[in-house]
Amino acid sequence: MSNVNYEQIEQAVRLILEAIGEDPNxxxxxxTPKRVAxxxxxxxxxxxxxxxxxxxxxxxxxxxxLVLVKDIPFFSMCEHHxxxxxxxxxxxxxxxxxxxxxxxxxxxxxEAVARRPQLQERITATVADAIVETxxxxxxxxxxxxxxxxxxxxxxxxxxxxxxxxxxxxSLETDSTARAEILSLIKG
Length: 188
Ligand SMILES: Nc1nc2c(ncn2[C@@H]2O[C@H](COP(=O)(O)OP(=O)(O)OP(=O)(O)O)[C@@H](O)[C@H]2O)c(=O)[nH]1
Ligand SMILES: [Zn+2]
Prior knowledge:
The chain is α+β, with helices and mostly antiparallel strands and 188 residues long. It folds into 2 domains: 6-43, GTP Cyclohydrolase I, Chain A, domain 1 (Orthogonal Bundle); 55-187, GTP cyclohydrolase I, C-terminal domain/NADPH-dependent 7-cyano-7-deazaguanine reductase, N-terminal domain (GTP Cyclohydrolase I, domain 2, 2-Layer Sandwich). It is 37% helix and 26% strand. The chain has helices at 6-19, 32-43, 103-114, 120-135, 149-152, 176-187; strands at residues 58-60, 67-78, 84-94, 99-101, 117-118, 139-148, 163-170. The chain has a 5-stranded mixed β-sheet with strand order 5-2-3-6-7. Strands 1-4 form a two-stranded antiparallel ribbon. It is elongated and about 60 Å long. The relative contact order is 0.15. Belongs to the GTP cyclohydrolase I family. Pathway: Cofactor biosynthesis; 7,8-dihydroneopterin triphosphate biosynthesis; 7,8-dihydroneopterin triphosphate from GTP: step 1/1. Homopolymer. It is an enzyme of class 3 (hydrolase). Pfam families: GTP_cyclohydroI (PF01227).
């Protein structure tokens, strides 16, 4: 269920168009406020989702070794400028006590967290913490690589600059060999 107030977004977009000196009633723009409202409802749909809900179904599988889903594409919106940042997330965990989740659920959690006004660091940490709190694994490592449009098309204008963030939890905090293995699997 979306909590988005479409009408309010439409009014705001009309005001912005006016404020930049455009005519919101010209043919090409007349439906734009409606389109933007629909688009924001989709792009911010993660606000109604708890990433933890995706880890409610678990399989009992005695695999207490690394699981890594890498190169999960995501699109998010920088909360400072409301322009996109996008890239890939790599999610690794070491299950404990037979609590193994469906692989797609790791990607679903990334999606739920990305579809909000966000910071890259918060996406990284929120996904890691959701896994810790639901699956109680030995360890978790989340790596996010992204390009921020607010650094590319405006401001400092540095296209191609990539930001990499990591969140490490549990046994992986002290196990540098396992962390290195994960990083080499991500690169490989
Ligand atoms: N830590 C972090 N910073 C981000 C993220 N997305 C955007 N930013 C930064 O947020 C900062 C906002 O800085 P401000 O000085 O308040 O805004 P600004 O004047 O538009 O900054 P410039 O981008 O340097 O022109 C910028 O340095 C952005 O690069 C993110 O996911 N994490
Ligand atoms: Zn920004």
